[in-house]
Each structure stands twice: as structure tokens, then as C-alpha cells.
Amino acid sequence: YFFYFPKQPQPHTYSYHRPNSKMSTPEAAAAADPAIAELTDQIAKLGVSIAEAKQAKKPKEEWDPLLKEMLALKVEYKAKTGQEYGPNKEEKKPKGNDSQEASDKNKEKRAKKAAEKAAKEEKKRKQREERERIQREKLEKLKSAANEDWSHVFGDAPMIQSATKSEEGVNRWTRIEALSKEMEGKKVLVRGFLHTARGVGKGAFVLIRSSLYTVQCVAFESKDIPSAMIKYMNGVPVESIVDVYGTLTVPANPVEGATQSEVEVQVEKFHCVHKATAAMPFQMEDACRPDLVKETDVGAYDHEANASAEGGRVGQETRLDHRWIDLRTPANQSIFRVQSMVCTLFREYLLSQNFMEIHTPKLLSGASEGGADVFTLDYFGKPACLSMSPQLHKQMAAACGGFERVFEIGPVFRAENSNTRRHLCEFTGLDLEMAIVEHYDEVLDVLGDLFVYIFDGLTEKCGQEIQRVKEQHGFEDLKYLKKTLKIDYATGCKLLREAGVDQGDYDDLSTENEKKLGDIVREKYDTDFFIMDKYPLDVRPFYTMPDPNNPKLSNSYDVFIRGQEILSGAQRVHEPELIEERARAWGIEVETIASYVDSFRNGALPHGGGGIGLERVVMLYLGLPNIRKSSMFPRDPRRISP
Asked: CA nearest 212: which of 231, 229, 193?
């Protein structure tokens, strides 16, 4: 609708007019007749009210009566004045002009957008050309530098094919971690990855990395250092392997970003041992950034959601796709050094307690524990599977073979389609089995002391590695007691119920309830590490010894770190008849485990033991949110490479 709001008429003398006389505007008609003036005023006020209602987006039902009233007044106005209410037609802008103006504006907008798009494309083109130019210059610098007769000072070293051997051998090189200010003034030769390189004027600053350690190396153009060498140093691709020879000096201020911050190498020779030729899938600086938030360590794992990350970080799946590069970060170097030390300490302690290391087969004719979650394969026309536990063979060795105390460190395979943060299809098992004299508490005493030995050893021997992990994946130090806390299953369930958790004494513990129990135990006993025994018999494997005092319970136990199970074990059944009875109760055909049962028919020592998941121990000790971070080359239902 067209609304015309005339100016309010000013008081003046009105003159009579003929109805058919031509009047230019309602203001002119109102000036000639007070009645027309009143009519004009009413129309104007109604127009204002309607416009305000529409602007406020009120429903039509509210302002429609006003519109009808205004239209009726306009009809009355025309009857009295002989013309339409509103400005003269000649005063209105031709409709065609409005359309033309709108069309012109659209053309201007389209033209502006096209210009902006063209400008963006031009900018991209220039940026692309600039990158290509820089790359050409780098290549030209390298080519030019290589043509100079300075090969004894800098350049690409010949491929190492073990063609020659110096008298000093490996002693010519100094490990970066050994560089200290006490060596000031000494000549050193170091080898490592080229972490970063930057040119400053006529100088080059490079950071060399070897495992956890980095040192800054500096060179400036001089009579002994040609400009071509500076260009060469700045042009070598990052992550190439380089040899740097020079004098170790102590700078006035500590070098930021280098672990060996009290020293730097004044470069005299610089050679590239192996050049990185492929483009980096991500930058090492991004891969080393601290975590933005602390992730949960339980629940499902979404592969797609972890393909990328925010804040310049690198997604977990991208890391695993290029694991050989991801392993170079200080945090990952530290994680797997801690993992190695766990194995070392595990072996050390058990050897000190008269255990013997054994190696059991991983190719079996049936499921390791009589279960179905196994990887099957064809064994020369016979069905076979990969071992999901060394359980049966370590029992044969310890209890039946007479070795009494045995342990093994080896691969374990589980064909479970579990895409969680704590499950893998292949992991490293730390297994032990031992003869007992009168009670399975003898095993628990060994386990408690074993883990205290491991925790103490990690604190003593891996302090620097633990700190490097904290820098990227912040976590609280593990709390543990020198005398390991032990509670029974019923006590654990009671603690959960007291905290408002629905948990029955004979119901299996869910992952969430295990985590909750870990929090309760930490609060009540000030420890993240504890043992819980006397689990319901129905939730344990068929070879678990029943509790003699309660047939619903068993002589079994789990060990926990930060509310998650890292070891499951029990006193084993060593009577053949009871083994067969328990197997039938589990629906296992006795014929499929005949060789296992038969091994106990010629005398067997009472015994017990347990199986530990190495990756889960490391994950929980270091407070990592995902077991894939503590597995060097993880295998889960979605990943079988690299």
C-alpha cells in the first residue's frame, strides 16, 4: 500500500474552491477547506499508525481495521476534492525509472563482486608465483653452493654405504645430550635432524635435534665461511640429517628453544648426510604443541573426528598415518623410553625373585582361553588362530613343567571390534605365573612389590622423559603406597553404593564404575594404585579357582591404576576334573582343550598369576587420554598400517 503523509497544515485564511478545480496536493486542498484539512489529518495519522504497526511486525489482524478506515476516508476525500489522495502523478517518479535504477544497482553489485573475486584470484596467483620463486631460489642456491669448491666445508655428503671406516669410528661424534658448558672451547661433531633453519643477514641459525635433545648451531659469513655456505645451510630442507662440526661456545644468554641452552656450536663445517625430499605432512612445531584441553581416557574413539585438530595441532589419525615422523616429537620419544623402562624394570624385578623368562607360541590350534574373539587362519589346511593369551602355556611351564616361576613379554591378539580409547587388537603382554605354597596372597605380594619397584624405578631413571611428556600432555604424578592397598570386591561395591552408585556385589563392574571407584579410593586412601580381589565367579575365565567359602566368588583379582584395570589374574584350577567341570559351565567343549587338561593329569603345583597390558600401564601412568599414544604402531579395528 502507498502511504502519503502530508505536512500538518498551518493556520491561515481558507478560500472556497470548486470540487472540480485542479489541486496539486492534499496540503493545497486542506488549505482551501477546513473540512478537507481535518480529513487529510485523519488519513495521515492512520497512515502513521499503520506504518508503525508494520514496522513492529505486528499481525495484520491488529492494523487491518485501521487500513480499512483509512481507505474509506480516501474515498471520501476523492468525493470532496475530485482527485486521488496523494501527490500529483507528475511528482511521482516513473515506475520505469525505479526499475532501471534497481537494475543499475544490481549491475554495480555484480560488478563489485566480480572485481573482488578477480582480486582474490590475482592475489592467489601472486602468492603461488612467490612460493614457486622462493623454491626456485632455494634450488638455485643449493645448486650454486654445490658448484663451489668448498666440499670439504659444506655440501651434500656421499651416501654412507660402509665403504670406509675411520680410526676413531663412532667416537668422532659427540652426542647432543652430552654437550655442556664444561666443554667450552672444544671442537665437536654432532649429527641429527635439522629441526629449524633461519637466515639473519649474512648468518644462519640452525637447531639440530637428536632424540630428546637439541642444540643451536650458528654460522656467519667470513673468510672461512663463504656466503654460499650460509645459503646452503638456510636451504637444506627441515628434517634432513646433517653433520655439524665446530667450536662449542657459551652464549651470553641461554638459548631459548634448545635443551642444551647453555651452549651453542660455532659452525665450521656443515654437511647434509641425507636430504628430506618429500613434503612434510605436518610441521614438527605443530606436532609438539601442548594439548589445548585434557581429553577423557574412557569411552568410544571416533577415527574421523580425530583426523584433524584445532589450534594448529595435529590430529591423532594424521599422526598415526605418518607415525615415523610423529615419533620424533620429544613427548613421543619420552613415552616410548618410559615404555622400554617399564619392560626393563618388570624383567629386573622378576629375575631378582627367581622367575625365569619364557617364550610361548602365538600360533594355536584353538582359542587361547576357549573364547571366540580370535584371529583365525589356515595352518597348512588346518584351522588355527593367533594367541589371545599365553595363559595355558605359562601354566604348563610353571605348574606342570616344574619351572615354578615364569614370565613372558610378548604380543597378544584380540579380535574384539572395540573402538574405544583403551582397547587394541594387538598389544604387548607382560605375563607371569608362579607356584603357590598355601594361598594366592603370595601372588598378590609379588604383584604389589613388582609395581612399586616399577614406579620407583621410573621416578629415578625417567625423570626427564616424564617431564617432557608433561610439557605436551599435562598430568598429575601417580600416587601409590609403598605397601600396596588391597580391598575385596564386596568392599569396592560398598564404596560405590555409599557414593550413590547402583552396584551389586555379584554384578560385573562397568568401565564407568571402575573409574568412579578409582576416584573414591584416591580420596579415601590417597593412592591411584590398588588391588581388588574376590570377584564373582561368573565374570571370570573357566580356569579360575572358586572361593572355598562362597561358591559365588572366586580367588581372582584385578590391579588398577587411576581407576582402570591394568592386570587381571587369579589362582588357577589345577585339578583336571574341576577344570572340565568349569569348562562345561562355560559352554566350552572339553575336547577342544584336551591337551591343556591332560597336562594336569601327571601332577601339577598349585599356582596363580596374571596378565598385564604394557600399553595400558604406560597410558595410565603418564595420564594419557588414548592408548594409541602409548602404542608405537597401534592396531585397532580400523587400523592395520603403517
From this structure: 193
* Paired sense of beta strands 264-274 and 241-249, if any: antiparallel
Catalytic, 414? Answer yes
Catalytic residue flag (residue 422): yes
**From 334, 556, 568, 631, active-site residue:** 568
**Residue 271 bears catalytic tag:** no
pLDDT tens-digit profile of 457-515?
Answer: 999 999 999 999 999 999 999 999 999 999 999 999 999 999 999 999 999 999 999 99
Alpha carbons 444 and 456: distance in angstroms, whole number: 18
Instruction: Mark whether 577 is an active-site residue.
Output: no
For residue 24, indicate whether it is catalytic.
Answer: no
* CB-based contact 311:289 (threshold 8 Å): yes
Q: Where are the beta strands (DSSP E) in 492-640?
A: 529-533, 556-561, 564-571, 607-613
Verify whether residue 580 is a known catalytic residue. no
Amino acid, single-letter form, for residue 481? L
What is the rounded distance in angstroms from the CA atom of residue 145 to the CA atom of residue 6? 85
pTM metric for this prediction: 0.74
The catalytic residue among 191, 423, 522, 639 is 423
Catalytic residue among 195, 337, 393, 414: 414
Catalytic residue list contains 574: no
What is the tens place of the pLDDT at every residue in 8-46? 444 443 343 444 444 456 666 666 688 888 888 888 888
Provide the 3-class DSSP secondary structure of residue 462.
coil
